[in-house]
Design goal:
Blueprint lengths: L6 H4 L3 E5 L8 H11 L9 E5 L5 E2 L2 E4 L11 E4 L6 H10 L4 E4 L9 H15 L5 E3 L5 E4 L4 E4 L7 E8 L2 H14 L3 E6 L8 H9 L6 E6 L5 H12 L4 E5 L13 H5 L2 H11 L3 E3 L2 H13 L7 E6 L2 H13 L3 E2 L4 H10 L10 E2 L6 H12 L6 E6 L7 H12 L6 E5 L3 H13 L2 E3 L2 H22 L13 H13 L7 H10 L8 E3 L2 H11 L3 E5 L13 E5 L2 H18 L8 E5 L7 E10 L3 E8 L4 H4 L2 E4 L5 H9 L4 H5 E2 L2 E2 L3 H17 L3 E11 L4 E3 L3 E4 L1 H5 L19 E4 L5 E6 L5 H9 L3 H8 L8 H8 L6 E10 L2 E12 L5 E8 L8 H16 L3 E6 L4 H9 L3 E4 L6 E6 L2
Parallel strand pairs: 1-2, 1-5, 2-4, 5-6, 6-7, 10-11, 10-12, 12-13, 13-14, 15-16, 15-17, 15-18, 18-19, 19-20, 37-38
Antiparallel strand pairs: 3-4, 8-9, 8-11, 21-24, 22-23, 22-24, 25-26, 25-30, 26-27, 28-29, 30-31, 30-32, 33-34, 34-35, 35-36, 36-37, 38-40, 39-40
């Protein structure tokens, strides 16, 4: 479905430059000139108009005194006037029916508080006109090479290509453009977003996802305004196409001091890192990498794996490439025996007989080509890097021509590193013109290759089917809410250890029994109850890091030792923190596990991405070692495992040199339960479990601390607004009964439903599948199934009908709703397995999906039906859908207004 009115901006039939100027080098003059010189005016697509009351004509273009005076309805207005005039111009454009605007003018929130007020006035003016879309203000403009549109004040436009570039920096745009023109790298779109008053990153990602010219996106990001929309759009895009991002401002300090270990460890940049990975985005850390990746994205397909073959005419560069590959955890491809035999037949006897493939310094062009053709055919090779060093016998230009010809028929990426200066320049030009990614050094080529390997790995994670973990949340949410409210009423902003553990225990996260002792005598009594040896910890709402003040005493085995420890802990706490309230100590059993591992798990509210989860090496050295992994909730089984596997201490958790590992399944379960806890309670802004003791048998929280946002308590936000990713909507699950008495559970689909989804499809006849999908296929692949089972619950819902017999669960039908990004219209489709047709299941699924549409605020629902699907047509007709039969087309459209 189209993104509302963005075609008016990126594919207009007419353009008006408001503030066009005859003054050379002015913005108004440059934009007008770029539009004309780019071929838009009277050329490729449409018409350009100038608006300026001081002129009759500028650069051969007729000038009009005002927007109202324009002779036709304009698609796109480009505003180049001073900031103070912009709100009025927006009103004029809206009244004239213009719905696409690019505001180049500066002087808004980026300069002063008065500018911020002016920007708010501009936004308010735009909101008066339904459907108006604005890029900017304070931007360089946009370029759409495929429609010859250069609506910017950049000096030149890049060639046509397949990469969309979106940047929050206009200056970087000009640098990228200059490089792209020199290197002959093409782009599908070039967008300087400016202040993103209206159109943001998410809108553009969604728009380019549907653009057939765009095969990948490069982002330059300084900040993200709406994380939920950004994550949703990026995750949808990266399922099929790569996004490369450079994030500026990596070392921005947090605005407030953290009140927990987790808060201290989770910095701003590390949260962006976790968010990008979750969205399938490949992050680069140097602007130079953006150039390298842009070249590879523009010229080559994404590699299917990390196995790289290196062909070189010099040993040293081959070693350099190998070092760079292994340093970045790439794989030096192991050549098949048949490949080695073919190379033996084509290369001199002195060749390297392995990878890197050294074709020797006297290699003529045909030797490069033969080696490349043979290696590309090897199933163990995912990509090939050809490195040329200009030696006395080398012909770099002819070698480039040979490589171009040899690589034409392969679907694997071929990269070139033509090392040197003037001698290789012509060869580089030939490679660039042919569309091969070319680099000045082997290291740059390998780095770009590995960025795309990272994308392939991230995409695999997006498509990975999780195991079903036996976590049944048959918890009474209302009762838990009452418990939580009671805890809040009895606590301050920082919950006590006992209150924090009470909440963990409610979510079935194991905790050590903790008692509070206000006196030494109480401490002894508590120790007698929990059993020796015990641990004493200072009990104070004002002390976060107990160990730092000497507030922890371990392994106390007698009443006398408990008494002495109590006095020492209270004395030290008052000495180190004289203003802190010290209410005594907590007493808990001392857990000793020879092969146990201490971890820290927790959560923190990030100002951009909302709640973020953390796991890492724990104990008193948690911050020192910084061995941690971050992820956005909600967690699935494979996401929790990925967090653990990414830790440097993973070998110790998994089992190392004969020492047993910890209970990984139990640890994964605890992480998942923690993600449910923080998802359910937006009031939690920091949560800290340190240490979490993991052993061979179990996982136990030894200490816990939760920080509450009182503002969220007093003014509750909408459900899950504190999360960047919408959790599973279990509130949409309900039990129904079919006409034959069969009990059915209607619920949203889950990623772990994939095996049952395959069975559902297998139970459908070819005719049923053709009526649903409108094409024939022999079997449902993993990639096809994930399209239906892995969904963004903010954008679409698939309601499955599940039955259970003798403990075996089965899916017997599914109704799918896919909404447009504005949540105005939804497409609906339904599939019921053959054995369950004719007993009202399809009607029941349809009615429930229409009910969900009303909850969503959807305005209209549309379905495409095969003309011979009489049963489905009757069902929609019975529900007051308007049935549209289109002569000559193999589809019937059913549409229903819900307002």
């Amino acid at each position: 479905m189209p993104i509302r009115n963005l075609d008016k901006i990126f594919a207009p039939n007419s353009v008006a430059v408001i503030g066009a100027s005859s003054r050379p080098l002015s913005v108004g003059n440059t934009v007008l000139k770029n539009l004309i010189d780019g071929g838009f005016d009277g050329g490729f697509r449409g018409t350009v108009y100038a608006v300026n009351p001081k002129h009759k004509e500028i650069a051969g273009v007729k000038c009009f005194p005002s927007v109202a005076a324009l002779p036709e309805l304009i698609d796109l207005a480009i505003v180049c006037t001073p900031a103070a005039t912009v709100p009025g111009i927006v009103c004029q454009c809206g009244e004239a029916g213009i719905r696409g605007m690019v505001i180049l003018s500066a002087g808004f929130r980026e300069v002063s508080s008065q500018g911020k007020t002016l920007e708010l006035e501009t936004l308010a003016a735009a909101k008066q006109f339904d459907g108006m879309r604005i890029i900017g203000p304070n931007c360089l403009g946009i370029i759409a090479p495929h429609v010859s549109l250069n609506a910017s004040f950049a000096s030149d436009a890049p060639p046509k290509g397949q990469v969309a570039f979106i940047s929050q920096s206009g200056a970087l745009c000009t640098a990228i453009l200059d490089w792209a023109i020199q290197e002959k790298v093409g782009f599908s779109h070039f967008v300087s977003v400016g202040n993103m008053m209206d159109v943001g990153m998410a809108d553009l990602i969604d728009y380019f996802a549907m653009d057939h010219h765009t095969k990948s996106i490069i982002l330059y990001i300084e900040s993200i305004a709406d994380a939920r929309e950004f994550m949703s759009a990026a995750r949808a895009f990266t399922r099929t196409k790569p996004i490369i991002a450079y994030k500026a401002g990596r070392f921005a300090a947090s605005a407030k001091a953290a009140a927990s270990h987790t808060g201290a460890m989770a910095g701003v940049d590390s949260v962006y890192e976790a968010a990008f990975a979750r969205a399938g985005i490949v992050r680069v850390y140097d602007v130079e990498d953006l150039f390298d990746c842009a070249e590879l994205l523009a010229r080559q397909k994404t590699p299917s794996g990390p196995r790289l073959a290196i062909i070189t005419n010099a040993g040293g560069p081959g070693v350099m490439a190998t070092d760079a590959l292994l340093e970045r955890k790439g794989v030096l491809a192991e050549l098949c025996d048949s490949t080695v035999e073919q190379l033996n037949a084509q290369l001199p006897a002195a060749w390297s007989h392995g990878n890197p493939i050294d074709v020797l310094g006297d290699a003529p062009p045909v030797r490069f080509a033969s080696a490349l053709e043979i290696v590309l055919a090897d199933p163990n090779v995912d990509g090939v890097l050809v490195v040329l060093s200009p030696q006395a016998m080398t012909d770099p230009t002819a070698a480039a021509d040979a490589i171009i010809e040899a690589g034409k028929r392969s679907h694997k990426p071929v990269l070139a590193a033509w090392m040197g200066g003037a001698k290789v320049r012509d060869g580089i030009e030939r490679l660039n013109e042919a569309g091969l990614a070319t680099y000045s050094s082997p290291e740059k080529a390998v780095r770009a290759f590995m960025h795309l390997v990272t994308y392939a790995r991230n995409r695999e994670i997006l498509y990975e089917t999780p195991r079903e973990v036996p976590i049944e949340f048959s918890l009474n949410r209302a009762k838990l809410r009452t418990l939580f409210d009671t805890i809040l009423s009895d606590s301050g902003d920082i919950l006590t250890e006992t209150a924090s553990k009470d909440l963990l225990e409610a979510y079935e996260i194991p905790v050590t029994k903790t008692l509070i002792a206000h006196t030494a005598k109480d401490a002894v009594s508590c120790a007698d109850r929990v059993g020796y040896p015990v641990v004493l910890k200072v009990f104070s709402p004002d002390i976060t890091h107990k160990t730092d003040v000497g507030g922890v005493e371990l392994n106390l085995a007698t009443p006398a030792k408990v008494t002495e420890a109590f006095d020492r802990i209270v004395s030290r706490a008052k000495h180190h923190c004289p203003d802190a309230r010290v209410d005594g100590v907590t007493v808990q059993p001392m857990l000793v596990a020879a092969n146990g591992r201490e971890l820290i798990v927790g959560a923190k509210r990030d100002p951009v991405f909302g709640t973020v989860l953390l796991v890492g090496a724990g104990g008193t050295n948690a911050e020192l070692f910084q061995d941690r992994a971050l992820e956005l909730p909600p967690l699935s089984d494979h996401l929790a495992r990925r967090m653990l596997e990414s830790l440097q201490s993973w070998p110790l958790l998994h089992g190392y040199r004969g020492r047993p590992g910890v209970n990984i399944d139990r640890l994964v379960e605890v992480l998942m339960r923690l993600s449910y806890l923080v998802a359910d309670y937006p009031e939690i802004i920091e949560l800290d479990v340190n240490p979490l003791l993991a052993t061979v048998d179990d996982v136990t929280a030894l200490d816990a601390r939760i920080v509450i946002d009182r503002e969220s308590v007093l003014h509750p936000a909408r459900r899950y607004s504190h999360l960047a990713i919408r959790p599973y909507p279990d509130e949409l699950s309900k039990h129904v009964q079919l006409k034959d008495g069969t009990n059915v559970l209607l619920r949203p689909i889950k990623p772990e439903d994939e095996p049952m989804w395959h069975n559902l499809v297998a139970c459908c006849s070819p005719e049923s599948l053709h009526l649903r999908f409108r094409y024939m296929f022999k079997s449902m692949t993993h990639e096809m199934a994930t399209r239906f089972c892995f969904i963004d619950y903010d954008r679409e819902i698939a309601i499955v009908a599940e039955t259970e017999k003798d403990g075996v669960r089965t899916l017997i039908g599914v109704g799918q709703l896919v909404a447009d990004v504005d949540h105005l219209e939804a497409e609906y489709a339904i599939l019921v397995t053959d054995p369950w047709q004719g007993i009202g299941l399809g009607a029941m699924l349809t009615d429930y999906c229409l009910e969900i549409c009303k909850r969503w605020g959807i305005h209209s629902v549309m379905a495409e039906i095969a003309p011979n699907n009489d049963r489905m047509i009757r069902m929609f007709d019975h529900r007051d859908f308007v049935i549209q039969r289109r002569p000559g087309q193999d589809v019937v459209i059913a549409k229903k207004s819900l307002h």
